[in-house]
């Protein structure tokens, strides 16, 4: 080596290769250039210190606007800032295109300003294979793409959805052929998901430590992106892991860090089947997508953790239905609300009861309690209260109490919990000086609705107690669906001394009873009427029993998996895709938790003959005159498809007359039993009203102005048959009607007499009649 041959000065070398130097001081607003840089910018060929505005005027405005983005990206990645700029003359013509390569660094107080030092060199055309020059249209496409990508990633709710969105992104001007998202567990890389590769291709990367010479490991370890523009560059920088990547036949790779919350949670790989030089614009797009992808994955991970926690909490609190019940099938569903923590206060339960039925011999048949309820709210506190209340109900039921006693104890239990919120756990008061609770304390006071049924599967007898909950729904053997009114009391937790009367229902073979919370009816903007119509349409869809082709016996459509299928279809009608096409009439479309419990008594449970008819039973107590309207509604529902509407009106009128007579002329309660049998078109309706009085009615001839005495006259004129049957205690008055086409009923003198004796009464008149009976 000859030491006298020293290297030339750097400035001379740069001048020899037509490369200028420049320094841009953002804090001072000045640009320092040498003579060669001045020549390239179309200025006098001499070194100078120029204001930033002078230099900016020499560049195309679109290119100048790109400098800030390129510099920001270079600062983030700790790399050189490289950008191509068009130099303009005073008339707006392009003189030449220069390439700037510079090293940015932050300076000044708070390191907010930037000092940019680098070179300027003229370039005649882009290198072979490089992308075309950046244009305004490309930038607009990039902005639109980033907006769409951000919106799609923000809407993704799970990790799988995030990966599907990332795989479907089509970047402007360049789109990767293969994608992979790497995570970190301890000191190892994990493959969260990939696209563009075959299943199983990720196996060689599963046990890779962060110390491995692999681009994704480097990115996670250092937090800096790695861009590999060619297979040669990949092989040179990562010779140990190049064989793993070479089999995918890719030409370029970009590995970017996924940073969320200030920490690197993984790496994102974008691989291309063609050569990509990763210009600053392309790096900017990839970096922005990586940031959005990291935020989306972080949100999805947090949401999945929260869902797993709340699902586990809800599964722990909700029971399994336990062993099968002889002669009865049971199905249940719970669907949390779609928003928030997806945990709420709805629940259902099935409780085996001890011993026989309250002094009655059951032949050793096991009785069960079925419970459904709804604690106010859709939060963790509602779920906690639900768990406490459910345990208390199980304890009271296990002690052998009747349904009314179970709910009476439950309301005292919940009232006690709410009282502790008011007076404090130590007996002190949480009230303020004015004697009122703070607003947040009022928000924590809750109530609960509940419906409790004690069932005897062998007889189908159900004893129902209700605390502010929706009434049960009965699906009869022929597919008719009725809302079954029951007496009830206040919701639990409002009045510690509330009473809950019992209503007895008999579930006939082939009938199904549905218990549900209000979310099943009102979700989707429905009120109670339209929501019940939606539920009724689903429950009626299985149709009546049909003869089996093999043995000729009636086939129960809800036996086996039929009840489970009905439960699924009920949930789908409220939360499935079809629910969005049939919204309710209300503007408020909020969602609510849904709990539904179905009990079906097997069609052949008794072993006797099976008749596919309709039957309803309603008890009217002496102090419940207003419930006569419920009885009329029940009878109309039973006759909803009766051929002659005038006959329906006549039957309702006769029923109202008989029930009113019971409340007016006796001291006991009235029992309605209505049954409809036969095929459509030739059916027969039988209505029985029983009371405990032994006094038999007598047919009278009322005067023109008389206000009573027409009951038996109406029966004689409007019914096809009627009678009075004495019973062991009391009597039963009944009437029957045969179905016929409109206009084909009684004619002539009987019809005219009926019109004279029975003036037409509308629903309001019938209500006034029931009110008068109650007052008497």
Please sum up the structure shown:
This is SpoIIE family protein phosphatase. This protein has 776 residues and is α+β, with helices and mostly antiparallel strands. It contains 21 helices and 28 strands.
Describe the overall structure.
By secondary structure, the chain is an alpha+beta fold. It has 4 domains: 8-123, PAS domain (Beta-Lactamase, 2-Layer Sandwich); 136-308, Beta-Lactamase (2-Layer Sandwich); 319-355 and 365-419 and 444-541 and 556-599, Phosphatase 2c, domain 1, CATH 3.60.40.10; 611-698 and 706-736, Histidine kinase-like ATPase, C-terminal domain (Heat Shock Protein 90), CATH 3.30.565. Helices cover 34% and strands 24% of the residues. A hairpin with a 5-residue loop joins strand 4 (81-88) and strand 5 (94-107). Helix 18 (645-665) runs antiparallel to helix 19 (711-718) and helix 19 (711-718) packs antiparallel against helix 20. The longest helix is centred in the middle third of the chain and has 38 residues, at 280-317. It is elongated, with a radius of gyration of 41 Å. 33% of the residues are buried. GO terms for molecular function: phosphatase activity. It comes from Streptomyces odorifer. Residues 6-78 form the PAS domain. InterPro entries: Bact_Sigma-Reg (IPR052016), GAF (IPR003018), GAF-like_dom_sf (IPR029016), HATPase_C_sf (IPR036890), HATPase_dom (IPR003594), PAS (IPR000014), PAS-like_dom_sf (IPR035965), PPM-type-like_dom_sf (IPR036457).
């Amino acid at each position: 080596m000859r030491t006298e041959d020293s290297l030339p000065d750097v400035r001379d070398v740069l001048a020899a290769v037509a490369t200028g130097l420049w320094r841009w001081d953002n804090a001072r607003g000045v640009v320092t250039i040498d003579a060669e840089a001045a020549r390239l910018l179309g200025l006098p060929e001499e070194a100078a210190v120029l204001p930033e505005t002078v230099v900016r005027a020499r560049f195309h405005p679109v290119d100048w606007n790109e400098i800030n983005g390129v510099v920001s990206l270079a600062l983030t990645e700790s790399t050189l800032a490289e950008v191509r700029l068009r130099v303009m003359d005073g008339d707006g013509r392009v003189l030449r295109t220069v390439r700037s390569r510079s090293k940015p660094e932050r300076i000044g107080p708070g390191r907010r300003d930037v000092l940019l030092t680098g070179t300027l060199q003229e370039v005649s055309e882009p290198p072979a294979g490089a992308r075309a020059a950046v244009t305004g249209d490309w930038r607009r496409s990039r902005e639109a793409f980033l907006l769409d990508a951000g919106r799609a990633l923000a809407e993704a709710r799970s990790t799988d959805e995030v990966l599907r969105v990332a795989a479907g992104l089509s970047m402007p001007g360049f789109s990767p052929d293969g994608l992979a998202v790497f995570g970190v567990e301890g000191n190892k890389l994990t493959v969260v998901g990939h696209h563009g590769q075959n299943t199983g291709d990720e196996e060689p990367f599963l046990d890779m430590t962060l110390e491995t010479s692999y681009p994704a490991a480097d990115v996670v370890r250092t937090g800096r992106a790695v861009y590999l523009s060619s297979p040669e560059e990949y092989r040179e920088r990562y010779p140990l892991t190049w064989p793993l990547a070479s089999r995918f036949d890719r030409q370029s790779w970009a590995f970017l860090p996924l940073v969320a919350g200030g920490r690197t949670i993984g790496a994102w790989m974008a691989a291309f089947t063609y050569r990509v030089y990763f210009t600053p614009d392309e790096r900017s797009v990839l970096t922005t997508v990586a940031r959005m992808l990291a935020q989306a994955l972080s949100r999805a991970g947090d949401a999945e953790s929260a869902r797993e926690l709340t699902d586990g909490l809800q599964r722990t609190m909700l029971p399994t239905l336990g062993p099968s019940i002889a002669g009865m099938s049971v199905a249940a569903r719970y669907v949390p609300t779609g928003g928030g923590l997806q945990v709420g206060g709805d629940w259902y339960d099935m409780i085996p009861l001890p011993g026989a039925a309250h002094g009655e011999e059951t032949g050793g048949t096991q009785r069960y309690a079925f419970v459904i309820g709804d604690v106010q709210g859709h939060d963790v506190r509602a779920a906690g209260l639900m768990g406490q209340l459910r345990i208390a109900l199980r304890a009271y039921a296990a002690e052998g109490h009747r349904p009314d006693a179970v709910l009476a104890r439950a309301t005292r239990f919940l009232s006690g919990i709410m009282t502790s919120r008011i007076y404090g756990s130590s007996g002190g008061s949480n009230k303020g000086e004015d004697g009122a609770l703070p607003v947040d304390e009022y928000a924590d006071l809750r109530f609960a609705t509940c419906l409790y049924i004690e069932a005897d599967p062998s007889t189908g007898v159900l004893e129902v107690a209700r605390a502010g909950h929706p009434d049960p729904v009965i699906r009869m053997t022929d597919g008719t669906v009725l809302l079954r009114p029951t007496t009830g009391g206040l919701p639990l937790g409002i009045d510690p001394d509330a009473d809950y009367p019992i209503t007895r229902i008999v579930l006939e073979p082939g009938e199904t009873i549905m218990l549900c919370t209000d979310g099943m009816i009102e979700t989707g903007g429905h009120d109670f009427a339209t929501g019940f119509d939606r539920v009724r349409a689903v429950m009626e869809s299985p149709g009546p029993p049909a003869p089996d082709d093999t043995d000729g016996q009636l086939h129960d459509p809800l036996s086996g998996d039929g009840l489970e299928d009905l439960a699924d279809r009920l949930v789908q009608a409220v939360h499935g895709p079809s629910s969005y096409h049939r919204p309710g009439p209300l503007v408020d479309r909020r969602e609510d938790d849904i709990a539904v419990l179905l009990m079906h008594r097997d069609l052949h449970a008794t072993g006797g003959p099976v008749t596919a008819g309709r039957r309803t039973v309603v008890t009217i107590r002496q102090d419940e005159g207003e419930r006569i309207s419920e009885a009329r509604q029940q009878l109309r529902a039973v006759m909803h498809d009766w051929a002659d509407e005038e006959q329906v009106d006549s039957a309702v009128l006769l029923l109202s007359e008989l029930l009113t007579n019971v409340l007016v002329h006796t001291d006991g309660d009235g029992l309605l039993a209505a049954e409809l049998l036969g095929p459509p078109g030739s059916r027969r309706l039988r209505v029985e009203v029983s009371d405990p009085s032994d006094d038999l009615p007598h047919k009278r001839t009322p005067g023109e102005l008389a206000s009573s005495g027409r009951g038996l006259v109406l029966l004689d004129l409007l019914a096809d048959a009627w009678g009075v049957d004495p019973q062991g205690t009391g009597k039963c008055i009944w009437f029957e009607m045969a179905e016929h086409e409109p206009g084909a009923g009684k004619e002539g003198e009987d019809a005219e007499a009926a019109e004279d004796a029975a003036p037409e009464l509308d629903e309001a008149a019938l209500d006034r009649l029931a009110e008068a009976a109650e007052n008497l």
